[in-house]
Amino acid sequence: MKKYPDFTVCQFWGPDVDANSQSDVIRVLIEVASDEEDKWPVVRQVLENLDIVGERFHEEILGIAIVKNEVSLFRNRPHGHGFHDLYGWISLFDQRFVAELNRIYDHSVDTDQTTWN
């Protein structure tokens, strides 16, 4: 059984641990599959990994399942009660997907008070 997600995007607080005691925070968790019949197994993987990550910290995170050119997006429920599916399966090129990526980026910038380069 696989123990790690395919990809994560983390908020990096800096290399100097002595000057910055904050840990890196996972902001986006991504699982990828290539066959249509893998849609629900890849969603299950995303949700299982989000649950594992959610046990370790209570930060905002975006879960993404990708199959071919479709995505399914998951976001934390308010107050830490699991995750919810935002739109079902949508196109990778759908503006809602771009908007969610921009939203999590903006949240991270607001949290860090700097911009990523």
Q: Strand share of the residues?
A: 25-35%
Strand order in space, largest sheet = 1-2-3-4-5
Computed Rg: 15 Å
Query: Major beta sheet, specifics?
Result: 5 strands, mixed
Helix content: 25-40%
Whole-Å distance between the termini?
35 Å
Low-confidence stretches: none
SS-derived structural category: alpha+beta
User: How many DSSP helices?
Assistant: 2
From the spread of the alpha carbons, the general shape counts as globular
Helix-strand string = EEHEEEH
Total strand segments: 5
- Domains (count): 1
Q: Return the average pLDDT rounded to an integer.
A: 84
Describe the structure.
The structure is a single chain. The chain has helices spanning 39-56, 95-112; strands at residues 7-11, 25-33, 62-67, 70-76, 83-91. It is of the alpha+beta class and 117 residues long. It has one domain. Strands 1-2-3-4-5 form a 5-stranded mixed β-sheet, with helices on both faces. A hairpin with a 2-residue loop joins strand 3 and strand 4. The mean pLDDT is 84.
List keywords for this structure.
single chain; 117 residues; alpha+beta; five-stranded mixed sheet; 5 strands; 31% strand
Topology readout:
Blueprint: E1 7-11, E2 25-33, H1 39-56, E3 62-67, E4 70-76, E5 83-91, H2 95-112
Parallel strand pairs: 2-3
Antiparallel strand pairs: 1-2, 3-4, 4-5
Brief account:
The protein is α+β, with helices and mostly antiparallel strands. It contains two helices and five strands.
